[in-house]
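During the no-cost extension, the postdoctoral fellow (Dr. R.K.) reprocessed legacy sequence entries with the updated structure-token encoder. One reprocessed record is reproduced below for audit purposes.
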Amino acid sequence: MITISALIFGSLSLFFYSQEKANITNGFSSEGALHVDIQKQIIGHEFDGIVQSLMFLEDQVEFHYAFVDDNGAKQVEDDLFSYMKASASLDQVRLINVEGHEVIRVNYHGGAPTVVTKEALQQKGHRYYISEIMKLQSGEFYISTLDLNKEHGEVEIPHKPVIRFGMGVYDQQGIRVGSIIANYLANEMLGILKKSGALSSGDFMLLNGDGYYLSAPDPKKEWGFMFADGVANSLAFEVSEVWGRLSSSDSGAFSMDDALYVYSSVYPYDEMLKNKHTKPEMLSGHAWKIVGYYGPEHFDMAMAPYRKALLQWAALFGGFLLFAAWPVAAFLERRKLMNDYLVLLSNAIEHAGEAISVTDADGVFEYVNPAFVELTGYAPDEAVGRKPSEILKSTAQNSDYYKELWQTISKGEVWHGKLIDKKKDGSFYPATISISPVQDKKGIITNYIAIQNDASDSQRLLEKEMREEKMKTLATAIGGIAHEFNNILTGMLGNVFLLKSKGGGDEYASSKLNSIEHLGNRAAGMVDQMLVYVGNEIQPHVFTSIEIKGLYQEVFFDLKKRAPEGVQYSSEFPDEEFLVNGDSVRLVEALSHLFSNACDAVADVHDGRVSVNLEQVTVKQGIAERFEVDGEQDYVRITVEDNGTGVSVEHREVIFEPFFTTKEVGKGTGLGLSTVYGIAKEHKGFILLKSENDEGCSFQLYLPLINS
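Re-encoded structure tokens follow.
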């Protein structure tokens, strides 16, 4: 009987032991998938912040003044200092001239920015990323991989993981005068990832595309690719078969050599480049791997309570009693472990800074964390049992926007985007939201998890920029004053010219006259910009005889290279030449705006088409009288046509007004077509729109020909 009981007990023990290990394996797999997703959210949130910082710098600071004179350099230096004082996302910003020597450098040390003295500025032309940035064309953008910063040829101690961003700096004539390089310090992001991984039962690591550790439980293994003897410090070298499985797919889980690996790919550079007009091919598709590792030591630790309980019950009870009682003890112990894990996970979510909510498959709230309550004003009992559309939905988005959201998540895909939601008090707030479907083992969606961040600060920054743009329209009201100011400047600059022509040999006086002349020219340029949208005579630019066909052929070729893929681009340029009297910079700007609008119009159109063609025409008398142009003059007509959704009747009358736009919030200022309208007027021409709903539209720019 004892032998039989022992055999039965042993068999059952082995069976339940294997079942327990299978349960722990499933628990580790679910836990790993959750932590991998959380770390992906952390990386995405961090890179969104980088994009906001770079876009702010690019829009707000006129870097080319740093290469004009000391006053310009001081102004740019002050702007960079103020920005870095307000935002600690960048570790260093540098302006480098075309010879590769630093002109300005602002470092972020000890919690505050520091401007580097001229004596401490260095020659950086030999750095690999400087060489790459020097090759950039106008409008192109450089992003380096994540690596460690070097000073004087050596890796800086303590280690500073950075991503470098660079672009060319051009003066007002479009001549390359230097480059700007900004370093993003990734220490905080990597630290958050480590803290997140520490909450799990396993070890979490972040790998680059070659299998090297960017973040690892053992810091000695990190950044192996930065050191001559660091080749062995990579997962690809240590366990090549594991790396082969990891790199063969974007995400998943597998067991190998008594260890469980849960992983997912993250494409930080692709997410960042969605916000840029130029997409460098060198980083497109470059993936990092977030890997959760559960080795024998982790399984042993998880199984220890079970083994301990089994031995205790075996010592206390014998035979049949032990056989009858131990499953209950094992069940209670397992439930305790799962409860402990759920408590830990619940605490993490409860204390998260992001608003986290969970709904069922129909979108009904089942859980909201304290951050959600603080953001929206709805207590848990006010939100649970109701749908987001009942309490958060605002009128800022149309039904098509929500329909697209639901279509995405209903397919089991993650949706990232921005929404303007409504708080309990009725006020609206902008939010960046990520909604992830949760599926059971059969692939059926059971819940949705939403993580949202309050984007009010970034929205206020955007609104501030828009208000500043709108201020330009005041030029209409002060046009007369601006013209009078031009007259004053003309007299002042004329007298400066006369004084300079007299000479006299006084170097100090000559220097001051040069400074006055320079400042006067700058002031005249500023007045000219104020009059862009004024209906009176515009301040003249550099008008010369221009062969418009050759100019626009080059511009179209360049625009087509940088345009979105998946669209058919065509052009028709006749053999004859067309001479117009104009400003080449303004004419290039006009075609760029029209081409960009056409690309935006076909962005969501299957088989999108954009065409540009030129032809010589005469205008009808009615058209000439409408636009107050010479009806007997020959014109060159530049037509930019697309097969997008067209322009509705109610919008056609106001399409050229400043700040009018049909694009979504944040995707357009409404100044493009009004600028083209002003440029056409400057050149004694005009612009027409031809459009039908759902049949595309055609913008026709008419410019008078010379000696027609």
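The chain has a mean pLDDT of 81. The two ends are 117 Å apart (CA to CA). The remaining legacy entries will be reprocessed before the final report is submitted.
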